[in-house]
Specification:
The chain has 1 helix and 6 strands; from the N terminus they run αββββββ. By secondary structure, it is α+β, with helices and mostly antiparallel strands. It has a domain at 37-113: OB fold (Dihydrolipoamide Acetyltransferase, E2P), CATH 2.40.50.
């Protein structure tokens, strides 16, 4: 009996290492989606099109990625917030926005405030 426990004791670390490797293998092989951070700002230049579509927020130029989600946040009478899809023509100078960015690339734009008039 003692001999079996000695074999088990020697092989246990190997079994644990193999199990951990097999558990993490799918995570290593899976592609990672771009993960952005949310920043707030004011539109200082409306979207324009050169080779790519750009926008200026707080004086910094950002590039829209393909299929960027554009929404406007509205609050209903019950105090619930809703996101309404918008187009580039609905984005105006002075609007308060939140943008999901990675570097200078925009993945989502949410208009949260109207320009001051």
């Amino acid at each position: 009996m003692k001999q079996q426990s000695g074999i088990f004791r020697r092989r246990l670390p190997l079994v644990v290492v193999i199990a951990l490797f097999l558990i993490t293998l799918p995570g290593l092989a899976a592609p990672v989606a771009a993960q952005g951070i949310w920043r707030g700002g004011i539109i200082t230049r409306v979207p324009w099109l050169d080779k790519y579509r750009y926008i200026e927020v707080d004086g910094k130029r950002y590039t829209f990625m393909p299929d960027t989600a554009l929404h406007r946040q509205e609050r209903d009478a019950n105090g619930m917030y809703h996101e309404i899809p918008i187009t580039f023509r609905n984005i105006l100078i002075g609007q308060q926005v939140k943008i999901s960015i990675q570097g200078r690339r925009i993945y989502q734009l949410l208009v949260v405030g109207l320009p001051d008039r």
